[in-house]
Amino acid sequence: MASELYNVIDALSREKGIDPQIVVNAVEDAIVVATRKYYKSQENLRAELDKESGQIRAFAVRTIVEGLDQLEDPLSQITLEDAKRIDPAAEVGGELRTYKPTDVLGRIAAQLAKQVIFQKVREAERDTIYNEYIGRVGEVINATIKRQEGQDVIVDLGKAEGRMPKKEQSRLESFAPGERARVVLVRVEKASKGPQVVVSRAVPELVSHLFQTEVPEIYDNTVVIRAIAREAGERTKIAVMSKDKDVDPVGACVGMKGMRVQSIIRELRGEKIDIIEYHEDPVTFAEKALQPAKVSRVTVLEGQEKHLEVIVDDSQLSLAIGKKGQNVRLAAKLLGWKIDIKSEEEKRQEVEDRMNVVLNQPATPLESVPDLEPGIIEKLVAAGITTVEAVADMTPEQLEEVPGVGPKTVEKISIAVNNYFSSLDAAAGSEEVPLSEDEGSTESEVATESEAATEEAALAGDEAPTEGEAPMEGGGEDSATGPDSGGQSGDLTGLEEEPEAGPDSVEDLVETGQYYEAEVVEGIEDAPPADEAEVTTHERPAGENENVPDEEKPGEQR
Questions:
Q1: I want to staple 330 with a disulfide (CB 3.0 to 4.6 A). Which of 84, 121, 229, 361 is the partner?
Q2: What range defines the domain where residue 408 resides?
Q3: Is the same domain home to 157 and 51?
Q4: Same domain for 370 and 492?
């Protein structure tokens, strides 16, 4: 029959949920500590609890050796000769026990033993709790709300207490002591005060468990939950897929008149839930994940990095992004892709900017650089460098990476490109030099090149009037050679500077018909002969001894 002490130990073990032998070992270790403190001995002490009688005995243990030459530590070893004096049955290699009286232990030793027992039992309890809950991480547990400590909620898990931090709580939820709630065990932490079991009601696993409880098709694996994205207290998006073509996954989760999903919403204190049908195609899946917004088109920008670009109508942009970006953020979590949302106007502007950059970008072929050797050009073209601008944007280190191009070749290329751009700058500078006032001329005084060429050709074909010939008649202001014409043309070299004709002198010349000779004929005396192909002549029958050119009617151009 077990002793009363052992019965107490057994009851304590059941209450703490630990092995009774752990408590027995704790009691024995406590007696050893108290005995060593009382006797102030450094011997190898041990204690033993008799289960039947409840008596605790403490003793020193020494190993038996052959002789003095093998004796190293007198506190832990004894020779065979000395051992036989105490116990005639002693043998080499055995142990000799020397019992220490425990009835002399006082109050201080008993208090020390009590502290050691409590410490050992507490450590055993912590290890038991840790080993039990560490394998249940991610499991949904029914808990009872015990109290509020600051922003944390303490729950009773049965064998241990759990802690629900503020970030693991839903914004819509508040609990009262004694209320029952389903929580998810997220982690078990070892701390100085014991294992900390952390629970949560904000993780997606809680929503998954609730759907498994409420939807039989999910429980029997006909409908599978492929992805969940949740922001606790705000909105949850869940993607489901059916293994049976006759079962609608979304309809099964919603239930008749929304009964199934409404039950889950009530459990989550009114949190919104979007149920989406899963698709393997990320483009189709993205269109459904961004609901209720209507998507115009989806483009995969980078497959390996999982990057999508979504274009929506201008009126749908705010709906697609959601409140504080919530809709697109949950859709990105659900897909596991990075999503860029743009409106039609933004995309159009982006395309226009890119086209402008491409169209305005200069592109000068390498052959335009005269100092660049053909062999170097071939090496650069083989490496995909075909323009002078591309070479100018490259560093010497980048040029040396081109096959067949070394430091000396890089120096040649640099000199050739610099000379090329220097020549362009010099040419541009010479074109921009302004004319002096003496050399300047107004638009009314200088005709265009085409008008000058045509007028020279016409004047070269006409000879100066001789005796017996009628002088040329000038038309009025509408005449081709009148005051409104493009002005004189021809070589102005060597002509004396004459004052500009005023309105009165021009009118006099018009009345007398002499303005043509006064302003034009003198300016082309030294003009080169015109090309015959550019000369236009008009012939009419001439009388005897008459060589008169055709007369011009006023306003008619020859």
A1: 229
A2: 366-429
A3: no
A4: no
The first and second tokens of residue 65, run together, are 């050796």
Residues 56 and 176 in one domain: no
Q: In this structure, are residues 42 and 32 in contact, taking their beta carbons and an 8 Å threshold?
A: no
- The amino acid sitting at 428 is A
Structure tokens at 278: 């899963």
Q: Please report, for the domain that includes residue 195, its CATH number.
A: 2.40.50.140
In this structure, the answer to whether residues 224 and 348 fall within a common structural domain is: yes
Q: What angle do CA 121, 126, 130 make, to 5 degrees?
A: 150
- Whether the link from the prior residue into 204 is cis, omega within 30° of 0, is no
The tally of CA atoms less than 13 A away on the side-chain side of residue 299 is 8
Query: Taking Cα atoms as reference points, which of 481, 385, 489, 369 lies closest to residue 417?
Result: 369
> φ and ψ at 450, to 5 degrees?
-65, -40
Q: Which two tokens stand for residue 259?
A: 């009964």
pLDDT digit string, tens, across residues 154-186 = 999 888 889 999 999 988 888 889 999 999 999
**Residue labelled with tokens 């929304």:** 258
Concatenated DSSP letters for 416-448?
A: HHHHHHHHHHHHHHHHTPPPPTTT---TTTS--
Pairing outcome for strands 196-200 and 180-189: antiparallel
- CA distance from start to end of the chain: 148
In terms of pTM, does the model score above 0.70? Answer: no
Give the separation between CA 171 and CA 174, rounded to whole angstroms. Answer: 8
CA-based nearest residue to 71, from 79, 82, 80: 79
Domain shared by 159 and 91, yes or no: no
Which residues are CB-contacts of 292 (< 8 A; sequence separation ≥ 6)? 319
pLDDT tens per residue, range 455-496: 444 444 444 444 444 444 444 444 444 444 444 444 444 444
Does residue 112 sit in the same domain as residue 148? no
